[in-house]
């Protein structure tokens, strides 16, 4: 593997196929799979295959990977048919914002009316 793998990281294990997931889209450096506890008709998680703990660490990598994650998220929205009705991209960053898995992931949410503010 060319990317960094963190021992005992749930999403690194999904990348390694050690834990099953419903993969819906993949690029060389990113992976998209359905959330196990969906909060909307479309609820997909997009991750870099390499381990970064949060969005700040991903942005600091400064190698185009954050771009690729966002492009993959949009491709997922198109594939899921939610790009025209509207969809939401969320990076929960830090425990105070509800981040529970510390391998950065963008939530792609769509397929229903999404309230704002999110609460
Ligand atoms: P966070 O709260 O960190 O922003 O989001 C973590 C997300 O990961 C949650 O929406 C949760 O449902 C999802 N999740 C947790 N464990 C698993 C798993 O084993 N498989 C999948 N596909 N999603 C998971
Ligand atoms: Zn990881």
Automatic annotation (TrEMBL):
Pfam families, sorted: HIT
Renumbered ranges of motif Histidine triad motif: 103-107
HIT domain: residues covered: 10-119
Coiled coil: none
Annotated PROSITE patterns: HIT_2
Active site per UniProt: 105 (tele-amp-histidine intermediate)
GO molecular function list: catalytic activity
InterPro entries: Histidine_triad_HIT, HIT-like, HIT-like_sf
Protein name in UniProt: Histidine triad (HIT) family protein
Organism this protein belongs to: Thermostaphylospora chromogena
